[in-house]
Amino acid sequence: MESEEFRLISPGIDHEGRLPRKYTEEGQGALKNISPPLEWYNVPQGTKSLALVVQDIDAPDPSGPIVPWTVWVVVNIPPSLKGLPEGFSGKEEEVGAGGEFAEIKEGNNDFKVPGWRGPKLPSRGHRFEFKLYALDDIPHLGRKVTKEKLLEAIQGHLLGEAVLIARAF
């Protein structure tokens, strides 16, 4: 059935798939670099943890081809959660306070710092890929989590992927 598909959505992204400015480095005042709200549905049976990687898949490499730029890495998301609230990044301890968010860990982005870093766009229309992984294991990635470590650790443990694409203007 179509409705049983593992899906990822964001109420913060408009119906045309646009990522509002407040989620980028180009927001206004305090309304910038805010992580967008995310919701997911139909997590595959047997999932023990979820992991999220967000990339600017149109990021230009000054020396050559387009190389995806990692914006956010989040691991150890309990499968019982139905989403992450807007502005979650950088506040996991505060939001969780020992609750359902307690085990979640934010990894380093390509700015080499943990958490969401909304991009500063050299041009408009960049696509942002939000990819949520359903895993049959809880990856143990050490203190410094990166996209590369995560992708290596989940090999052979993937139960499903949900993808959301948004454009920043």
UniProtKB/TrEMBL annotation:
Cited InterPro entries: PEBP (IPR008914), PEBP-like_sf (IPR036610), YbhB_YbcL/LppC-like (IPR005247)
NCBIfam families assigned: YbhB/YbcL family Raf kinase inhibitor-like protein
PANTHER family membership: PEBP (PHOSPHATIDYLETHANOLAMINE-BINDING PROTEIN) FAMILY PROTEIN (PTHR30289:SF1), UNCHARACTERIZED PROTEIN YBCL-RELATED (PTHR30289)
Protein name: Phosphatidylethanolamine-binding protein PEBP
Species of the source: Macleaya cordata
